[in-house]
Amino acid sequence: MLTAHTIKVLQSLDKKKFRQKYNLFLVEGNKIICELFNSNFKVKEILSTDPQKLDRTDVPITHISENELKKISFLKTPKDSVAVCYLDQQETWADKKVQLVLDGIQDPGNLGTIIRLADWFGIEQIICSEDTVDFYNPKVIQATMGSFTRVNIVYTDLVEYLSKTENVNIGTDMDGENIYTFEKPEKINLILGNEGNGMRPETEKLLPKCISIPRFGKSQSTESLNVSMAAGIILGQLFSK
Amino acid sequence: MLTAHTIKVLQSLDKKKFRQKYNLFLVEGNKIICELFNSNFKVKEILSTDPQKLDRTDVPITHISENELKKISFLKTPKDSVAVCYLDQQETWADKKVQLVLDGIQDPGNLGTIIRLADWFGIEQIICSEDTVDFYNPKVIQATMGSFTRVNIVYTDLVEYLSKTENVNIGTDMDGENIYTFEKPEKINLILGNEGNGMRPETEKLLPKCISIPRFGKSQSTESLNVSMAAGIILGQLFSK
After folding, report:
1. Which family is it part of (chains A, B) (predicted)?
2. Which residues of chain B have a CB within 8 Å of the CB of A145?
3. Which of B76, B145, B193, B200 has the fewest Cβ atoms within 10 Å of its own Cβ atom?
4. Domain coverage including residue A26
5. CA nearest A49: which of A36, A38, A33?
6. Would you give the DSSP letter of residue A80?
7. Domain boundary among A86, A116, A138
8. Same-domain status, B135 and B17
9. What is the pLDDT of residue B184?
10. What is the mean pLDDT of residues B28-49?
11. Quick check: B114 contacting A, CB < 8 Å?
């Protein structure tokens, strides 16, 4: 039986403030939970409607009812289990050869999709501006389909970071160099801007070059592609060379 | 003032059965509604909280209250206007040189995203299996961001269609030819399968070849890419040549 206090704490973890206060975040569903065990993330406990399925002895597992699961789950259709995990207290990190840099991505679904893309393309690290949506947000965690366990995600002051990195900073916008002719530098940061406003002017100032996906459709009314879709198409092209 | 009957009819248009019964579908938001006027779609009437903004005399516009808009809108945060449109009664169509073929796509967001992608890449026609989600579904219409007005969407018996088309039918799966080495035929149908199950066996039988996006990440646990993301990356690559 979960106490009312426990339920209240777990329910509060959809807010960054409370995730930081308790140093905890939630991961839902056995499939993603199992990937935690191959990662640096530490699991505090698992609450499951079917503990036998998980078959782990190294982590406390509490049997809960469907009704309790409904109370603590952030999903419309709750899955089998919820893992309560500790935030990863990252101290030091170093640049990787190919990185994504996110300048104010706000939508949890977009961040989750971008993390999943990074994992697909073997990109090990994503650098985020401090105002990028928190990746411990339950919607982000679920949208990554477990990829957050394999991609290192760092929040930092972008202007400071971009000024000192040795990677070549390449922006993405609507009138940059055609991705089909662009020659990828060996060490690259690909910068993706906010959904509505793109990259910030102070970020753009620090970029030697921007690239764009050419639009083949003739209508001027066609909306620009969603940021995560654009990221996928650009990565697909960068990795072709 | 909208009558209770009108409200009931409009509310029923989230279901295919009622869209077909009344021969109507809804488009929400002035931005997308304006694109209807440059298309073949016929608008029956517009219900708007701010009719002056639309500035049209060729279509009946009814002034409605915010409260009435809330009742008829399918959006969480309703926009300014709702256009009531006639379904496009398509009779004949002919193959285009580059087409997408959808084999049982179920998620409205995926179909909407794929239509938007087609528009970006100038693909004029999408052929759907009869069990593909209806593109008049309000979630599809909104996810296309207006692109449904520029891409012709056809529902047909895929086995029959794929057997007789002169385009080369190219499937997409997890172990096909690498998209980076694949040579695009001049006339191509790119077939995308259902979210969970991929293409149907009876569809696959009719394909001379499948193509795949190579996974650069090393983990075997990485989930395969979402179908609309895969479509974007493949199209990005096909159009590079």
Report:
1. Belongs to the class IV-like SAM-binding methyltransferase superfamily. RNA methyltransferase TrmH family.
2. 223
3. B76
4. 4-86
5. A33
6. S
7. A86
8. no
9. 94
10. 94
11. no
